[in-house]
């Protein structure tokens, strides 16, 4: 009985170490900081939501207001040009107004380490 | 005639004695083989017991030698009675980040998928949702500090939103591993 208790203790420790080894920290704060830094000053972000994707990485969705179309288009281009972000989705309807454009942009953030 | 009868008698007697001797030999041989097998089983059991004892002893040594390291590894998880301590850690993180925190949810995750493998590790998942209010930089700093807590924490959903008063509210849903 003592032997089986010992073995179970060792197995439990092994399983805990495996859990720790499997844990991959994801730096979402870095992703959000990068995301926010890519916008021009005319683009104001009012809300950000990040959801952990089942396959890893994050889906980041941000909404806000852009003072001009050019600033919003530049923000979209910068996001598309940054390899840390993928699947940039900014609906065309966001460009309907010529000033004070409300928008929602969604990106996949793939970088896991800063 | 007597000598002939006597010879036949002696012959029959010899055959009987020889037959008895052979039968006795066979019986004894089977008994011997049976005993030999029993002895082999006993010796093997003794060897097995000795091996188990040696294995137990080496496990004891291993456990004793790694006790400190195992305690340090266990300290990465929320302790059995450590939920309150963990929540205070999160609140302290908020203080360090300069934001006001409010714990909005604490619950045990229902068993599914990965929970089976966690159970074998004597662990369970605690779901915590915490709200942090302050400047954008403060809320972002809270996120950065929470990610760097020395625990295997998984953030599952994070949201930042700016209120009409200009205060940023961050809601962080995280999963942390707790010792059962």
Secondary structure: elements and pairs:
The complex is a heterodimer of chains A (about 110) and B (about 180).
Chain A: H1 2-22, H2 28-37, E1 43-52, E2 58-68, H3 69-81, E3 85-89, E4 99-109
Antiparallel strand pairs in A: 1-2, 2-4, 3-4
Chain B: H1 2-65, H2 67-74, H3 83-97, E1 100-108, H4 115-120, E2 123-134, H5 136-147, E3 153-162, E4 168-179
Antiparallel strand pairs in B: 1-2, 2-4, 3-4
Tell me what you see in this structure:
- The complex is a heterodimer of chains A (114) and B (180).
- Chain A has 114 residues and is α+β, with helices and mostly antiparallel strands.
- Helices cover 39% and strands 32% of the residues of chain A.
- Chain A has helices at residues 2-22, 28-37, 69-81; strands at residues 43-52, 58-68, 85-89, 99-109.
- The radius of gyration of chain A is 21 Å and the shape is rod-shaped.
- Chain B has 2 domains: 1-65; 83-179, Ribosomal protein S6/Translation elongation factor EF1B (Alpha-Beta Plaits, 2-Layer Sandwich).
- Chain B is 58% helix and 24% strand.
- Chain B has helices spanning 2-65, 67-74, 83-97, 115-120, 136-147; strands spanning 100-108, 123-134, 153-162, 168-179.
- The relative contact order of chain B is 0.11.
- The A-B interface holds A 2-3, 6-7, 9-13, 15-20, 23, 25-30, 32-33, 46-52 and B 52, 55-56, 59-60, 62-63, 66, 70, 73-74, 76-77, 117-118, 120-123, 140, 143-144, 147, 152, 154-162, 177.
- Strand 1 of chain A pairs antiparallel with strand 3 (153-162) of chain B.
Summarize the structure.
Chain A has 114 residues and is α+β, with helices and mostly antiparallel strands.
The helix fraction of chain B, in percent, is 55-70%
Q: Give the CATH topology of the largest domain in chain B.
A: Alpha-Beta Plaits
Shape of chain B: rod-shaped
For the largest sheet of chain A, list the strands in their spatial order.
1-2-4-3
Number of domains of chain B: 2
Number of strand elements of chain A? 4
What's the tally of helices of chain B?
A: 5
User: Tell me, what is the CATH class of the largest domain in chain B?
Assistant: Alpha Beta
End-to-end C-alpha gap of chain B: 101 Å
End-to-end CA span of chain A = 49 Å
Q: Architecture of the largest domain in chain B, according to CATH?
A: 2-Layer Sandwich
Helix-strand string of chain B: HHHEHEHEE
């Amino acid at each position: 009985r003592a032997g089986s208790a010992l073995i179970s203790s060792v197995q439990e420790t092994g399983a805990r170490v495996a859990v720790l080894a499997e844990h991959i920290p994801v730096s979402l704060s870095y992703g959000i900081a990068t995301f926010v830094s890519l916008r021009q000053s005319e683009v104001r972000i009012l809300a950000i939501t990040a959801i952990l994707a089942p396959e890893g990485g994050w889906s980041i969705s941000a909404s806000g207001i852009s003072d001009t179309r050019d600033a919003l288009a530049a923000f979209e281009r910068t996001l598309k040009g940054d390899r840390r972000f993928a699947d940039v989705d900014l609906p065309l309807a966001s460009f309907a107004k010529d000033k004070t454009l409300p928008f929602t942009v969604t990106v996949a953030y793939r970088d896991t380490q800063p | 005639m007597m000598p002939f009868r006597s010879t036949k008698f002696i012959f029959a007697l010899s055959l009987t004695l020889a037959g008895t001797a052979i039968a006795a030999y066979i019986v004894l041989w089977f008994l011997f083989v049976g005993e030999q097998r029993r002895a082999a089983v006993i010796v093997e059991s003794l060897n097995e017991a000795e091996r188990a004892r040696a294995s137990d002893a080496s496990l004891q040594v291993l456990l004793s030698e790694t006790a400190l390291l195992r305690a340090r590894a266990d300290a990465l998880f929320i302790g059995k009675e450590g939920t309150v301590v963990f929540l205070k850690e999160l609140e302290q993180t908020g203080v360090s980040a300069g934001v006001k925190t409010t714990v909005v949810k604490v619950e045990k995750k229902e068993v599914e998928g990965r929970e089976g493998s966690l159970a074998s590790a004597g662990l369970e998942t605690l779901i915590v949702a915490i709200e942090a209010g302050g400047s954008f930089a403060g809320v972002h700093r809270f996120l950065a500090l929470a990610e760097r807590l020395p625990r295997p924490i998984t953030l599952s959903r994070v949201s930042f939103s700016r209120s009409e008063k200009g205060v940023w509210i961050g809601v962080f849903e995280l999963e942390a591993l707790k010792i059962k």
